[in-house]
Amino acid sequence: MTVKKSSSVVSAEDKDSSIPVESGHKGIGVDAEIKASNLRRLKRIEGQVRGLQRMVEGDRYCADILTQVSSVQEAIRSVARALMRNHLTHCATHAIQSGSPDEKQAMYDELLEMIYKNAR
User: 31-51: buried (b, 16+ CB within 10 Å) or exposed (e) per residue?
Assistant: First the structure.
């Protein structure tokens, strides 16, 4: 997998949500099986979140809702771990093995930032 960098990083809004999408990096050659697995997981999580909405609308018992919230959080962490593994296996390895000193340093900085963000 190689990473294509754009000279300008623009923050955009995804049309279907309010989650900002950074358009400065693009994964190229993403493994189709890994992508499909992550998409299946995310669709399952989407269904779980809709179920949480119905539980809140239906005034379900708070402890039951919190149990389901924990389940969704773990499912999201699972997707994050799969994405991190893929990034380390492909993008980071490529940059560290064959990148310029500046590209290597940028990758180290990116990895540290990712670890800090995901360790919360």
Answer: eeebeeebeeeeeebeebeee
Task: Look at residue 62 and tell me if it is in a domain.
Answer: yes
Q: Specify the number of domains making up the chain.
A: 1
Question: Per residue in 45-77, pLDDT tens?
Answer: 999 999 999 999 999 999 999 999 999 999 999
- H or E element in which residue 80 lies: helix 62-86
Q: What is the CATH number of the domain that holds 84?
A: 1.20.58.1000
Query: Helix, strand or coil for residue 55?
Result: helix
C-beta separation of 3 from 98 below 8 A:
no
Q: Does 14 fall in a domain?
A: no
**Residue 16, pLDDT above cutoff 80:** no
Give residue 31's pLDDT. 80
Contacts of 69 (CB under 8 A, 6+ apart): 52
